[in-house]
Design brief:
The protein is an alpha/beta fold. The protein folds into 3 domains: 143 residues, 3-Layer(aba) Sandwich (Rossmann fold); 108 residues, Alpha-Beta Complex (Hect, E3 ligase catalytic domain fold); 140 residues, no CATH class. Helix content is 49%, strand content 14%. Strands 2-1-3-4-5 form a 5-stranded mixed beta sheet, with helices on both faces. A 3-stranded mixed beta sheet has the order 10-14-15. β8 and β9 form a beta hairpin. The longest helix has 34 residues. GO terms for molecular function: DNA binding; DNA strand exchange activity. Keywords: DNA integration, DNA recombination, DNA-binding.
Length: 482
Amino acid sequence: MKKVAVYARVSTTVQAEEGYSISEQTDKLSKYCEIMGWTVYNTYTDAGFTGSNIERPAMQQLIKDAKESKFDTVLVYKLDRLSRSQKDTLFLIEDVFNKIGIGFVSLQEKFDTTTPFGKAMIGILSVFAQLEREQIKERMALGYAGRIKSGKTAAHSIQPFGYDYNKEKGILSANPLQASIVKRIFEMYLDGVSIVKIVRILNDEGHIGKEKLWAPTTVRRTLANPVYIGSQLFKGDLYKTDNDVIIDEKVYWAVQDELAKRNKKVKEANNNPKPFQSKYMLSGILKCGKCGKPLIIVVGNKKKDRTTNNRYQCYYRKTGGGSRPVDFNENNACDSGYFRQDALEKYVIDSISELQINDQLLETAVSTTEDSNKVDTMSLKKKLDRLEKELAKYKNMYMIDAISLEELQEQTKQNTLRKKSIINQLNQDKTEVNNLRISRAKKLLSSKNISELPYGEQKIMVNTIINKIICTNAEYSIIWNF
């Protein structure tokens, strides 16, 4: 004898008036069970819930009980009582009920998945479910394009750094604190500061306005994002939006030119067409200990297990019977050795791992590494002057009602924080500087042990904390970024 779960649903009073009331459905289903000699295990009812999705209390309980095999058949009055979505109906029948041997019967359509005809109907249902999915995708794409072309933001679920989502207007509104940091990133980059150094500066100051530490990839993504000039990229074209503008267009395009120039420079130096997207951990930071030129990866032939014996070698090493022109050793090619990728990467990972667990070793590494963040006094004083002028500009803007009092207060707060940081740098003695560097190093190394991270995260960490690695036949020398 079949043990049946009866399910009934109604979403509106109109449906109840048309003969779809909960009581009418359950009454007809109970009588059908009597005729068939089936036992009703339980009756599940969702009153006032839409059939467009399966997030309904009774439906969720039915699914839970089904997975615990409390009954062997689900009975509904009509297919659309289960769901109005072909996709959800197919999911429930195939992925929930059939998967655990539970039959499904719909009274009106005489649909029974335990019969050959019912099984054939599942195949037909799957075709319509696929059609429904494609239609949903098409509607979403049209909606996405429509939002962009009408000036609304399409990326409201995850806001870019610098913005908050304004639900009423459907746009991205500038977050004063974060927006000031975005402006500073663009400013520093145009001043010639490298992406890696920008990361260090922002993280040293406590990554204000951001929960996680900055990484080179996030800074570069920020610099390349057209959202900051009030535009959005869609299928290769830029569309103007109603989002708040944070970066002036001239500044943005100047940064894009600078990014391209630096990319080209790194490509020429390292023979790497995608310097910021290299799949190898140490690309761009290895230097030859003999001639000072970059090391490049040489990919070996694939072995039976599909692995390769890759190695690094000097860009100016003699290869293939010829040599590249160099400006040392009387124009002879560099004769430095080869460095196995796996061995070199293991050395680097082990070195970082040791620093993470040994404070004394970390302090030694800091004290024997020249402070790469050291800036001359004149440069710091120029920055102070620039901040004074910047604050004066905001005060003038407030006087002519170009910005609100709240915006002036926020800019004054940020300006004060930056000035305080510079003044502290000017006043620090060597001991304080060394202690700060140790603190900075510990923060950079404070994540999960690098040996336990996936390769991609190891690569980001390595490029954040290592300035360069000098390789000779006898040893490797790591120059740290702290």
